Amino acid sequence: MLQISNAVSLADWEIEIHAIRAQGAGGQNVNKVSSAVHLRFDIRRSSLPAFYKERLLALSDQRISKDGVIVIKAQSHRTQDKNRDDALERLRELILSAVRTDKARRPTKPSRAARQRRMDSKTKRAQTKSLRGRVV
């Protein structure tokens, strides 16, 4: 079972995990051992709340197919268990990032004193540069 938050969790039957051979340069074991993990998660069939499903389907992430299936491939570790844990953690982070709401930005403007300091520094810099000119 994958715990997403205090109230939301995913059952094992909702997540398909298959072991595959890792890509990349060959080594002693790379062509013989299936250490990479391929994770598939169907958003529409899952037991996630409707709000989570809507937000996930609205994401423009290349890991989410048009059918609403999340596909994650983990092959950075040497062992299958670590790759499996990595894939599950990446799925958890993807779901959490979809439902996270950012704080609204309130537009601000610089104070009058800050604008004055900026103009003074520009004037001082211009005077310094003008002194570098040719002496007549």
TrEMBL record:
Keywords, ordered alphabetically: Cytoplasm, Hydrolase, Translation regulation
EC number(s) given by UniProt: 3.1.1.29
SUPFAM superfamilies in UniProt: Release factor
UniProt cross-references to InterPro entries, sorted A to Z: Pep_chain_release_fac_I, Pep_chain_release_fac_I_sf
GO terms classed as biological process: regulation of translation; rescue of stalled ribosome
Record-level GO cellular component terms: cytoplasm
PROSITE patterns in the record: RF_PROK_I
Stretches the record annotates as Disordered: 99-136
Catalytic activity: an N-acyl-L-alpha-aminoacyl-tRNA + H2O = an N-acyl-L-amino acid + a tRNA + H(+)
UniProt cross-references to Gene3D superfamilies, sorted A to Z: 3.30.160.20
Bias kind Basic residues: ranges: 106-116, 124-136
Domain called Prokaryotic-type class I peptide chain release factors: residue spans: 21-37
One Pfam short name: RF-1
Subcellular location: Cytoplasm
Top-level taxon in the UniProt lineage: Bacteria
Gene Ontology terms, MF aspect: peptidyl-tRNA hydrolase activity; ribosome binding; translation release factor activity
Quaternary context: Associated with 70S ribosomes and polysomes.
Entry similarity comment: Belongs to the prokaryotic/mitochondrial release factor family.
Name of this protein: Peptidyl-tRNA hydrolase ArfB
Source organism per UniProt: Marinobacter mobilis
